[in-house]
Design a protein that fits this description.
With 193 residues, this protein is an all-beta fold. Helix content is 3%, strand content 42%. The protein has one helix and 23 strands. An eight-stranded mixed sheet has the order 2-5-8-11-14-16-19-20, with no helix packed on it. Strands 3-6-9-12-15-17-22 form a seven-stranded mixed sheet. Strands 1-4-7 form a three-stranded parallel sheet, with no helix packed on it. Strand 19 and strand 20 form a beta hairpin. It is globular and about 45 Å long. It starts with 5 loop residues before the first strand and ends in an 8-residue tail after the last strand.
Amino acid sequence: YHISSKFNLNGYDLNVSVLDTYYLDGGYTIAEDTTGVVTSPKPAELTVTGAGSYLSNICLQDKASFNWSPPDDESRLTLPNRTHTTAGTLTVSRGTVAVTGSATFASLTGIVLKSGAALELESAAAASLTSVELFEIAGDAALHLSPGASVSVAKAFVGGVPLMPGVYTPATAAWLKGERITFEVRQSLWTAR
């Protein structure tokens, strides 16, 4: 399915195989523009299930959540150079999602990395995640950050276990990958009785 302008989920979840996607080996360069916007005034999730390596020009807005759920672990989706304003959730169910270039998710409220999945963030994307309320990562999933990048989230679970507030590095967290990087958890999930 190719989006040439704005697509409104209008509160309904949608599963598609490929969405506004270009094969990486095709040599295409995607420029920032106003096409490929996926929006929803009410919470809704767009799930993309296609296999392969793709570069996609979609831009998520409002309350539209996104789930990359290919049939294999080798599939890769690259989201370059877009300013995503969604207050939804980014889920990687399988394979890898790479957020590259100047792409940002300043209003994103949740990130979920399921078993075996990976999320790669370049510096601009990593720094933009300050609105993330909850980061959930399966014990064998991975977060890859470009050298020197930092992520700061409100709360986090790893393998179903809440992380205590603090700063984590690859030396203290096996799921965190990169050089000279940090992952900060600002709030505790534990409550006093």
